[in-house]
Amino acid sequence: MFISKTGSTYHMNFWNTNKGRQLKSEAAKKRKEENSKKYTSLIERLNELNEMGKVYGFIKDMYKVLITGSRPFTDKMHQSTIKALSRSEFDEAKMVEQKANARGLIEKVNIVYNLVNELDGDKKQYYIDTYSAIPFVTSVKEQVEKRYWLSKKQMEGLNKVYKKYLKRKEKLDENNKGQS
C-alpha cells in the first residue's frame, strides 16, 4: 500500500511503475534475442515476405511477436506460422503453377463480369449497391486475380449470377428485336 502526500491510501500497481516497464522491456529484449537465434530462418522468410508486402493478418502478428519479443513465441505459434506459410500464396513456384491452372477460371469470371457490367453498368449507384451483382462479381474477380482460387460456394454464386443475367440479356435482346 502507498500513502500519498494528501494522506489517501491506494494500492500501487506494479505494472504502472517505471520498474514494471523496465522489467517488461528487459524480458522483451531477452525474448527477442532468443527468437533471433532459435527462429533465424523463419524470421528471414518473414522479412522477405514483408519487403514484398505479403505479410498481413495472422502472419503479420506472428512476425511482430518474433521481431519485438513482446510476448513468448510458443511452439504452437511456430507450427501455425509454418502451416500458414506453406499456402501457395507465399510460395512462388506453387503460385506460378496455380496461376497457370486458373486461366480458365479467370476467363469465366471475366465473361460474367463483362455481362453484368453490360447490363447494370449504366445504372445509378444506389441500384448497383442495392440490387446489382456488380459488387459480388468484382469481389470474386479481385480474389481470382489475387489468389487464383474460388470456393465451391463462390463458383455456385457466380453460376447463378451468370444464368440470371444471361436471361435478362436475352429478354433485352428480344425486346430490342421486337421494336426494330
Can you give a write-up of this model?
- This protein has helices at residues 18-38, 40-52, 57-68, 75-85, 92-101, 103-120, 125-130, 134-147, 152-179, and strands spanning 2-3, 9-10.
- It is mainly α.
- The mean pLDDT is 84.
- The chain is elongated, with a radius of gyration of 27 Å.
- Helix 2 crosses helix 3 (57-68) and helix 6 packs antiparallel against helix 8 (134-147).
- It has a two-stranded antiparallel ribbon with strand order 1-2.
- It folds into two domains: 2-86, no CATH class; 98-179.
- The longest helix has 28 residues, at 152-179.
What's the structural blueprint in terms of helices and strands?
Elements: E1 2-3, E2 9-10, H1 18-38, H2 40-52, H3 57-68, H4 75-85, H5 92-101, H6 103-120, H7 125-130, H8 134-147, H9 152-179
Antiparallel strand pairs: 1-2
Helix pairs in contact: 1-3, 2-3, 6-8, 6-9
Please give a quick description of this structure.
The chain is an all-alpha fold and 180 residues long. It is built from 9 helices and 2 strands.
Report how far apart the termini are.
92 Å
Helical region count?
9
Total beta-strand segments:
2
Unreliable spans:
none
Number of spatially distinct domains:
2
Order of helices and strands: EEHHHHHHHHH
Class per helix and strand makeup: mainly alpha
Strand arrangement, largest sheet? Answer: 1-2
Q: Biggest sheet: strands, sense, closure?
A: 2 strands, antiparallel
Assembly state of the chains shown: single chain
Helix content: over 70%
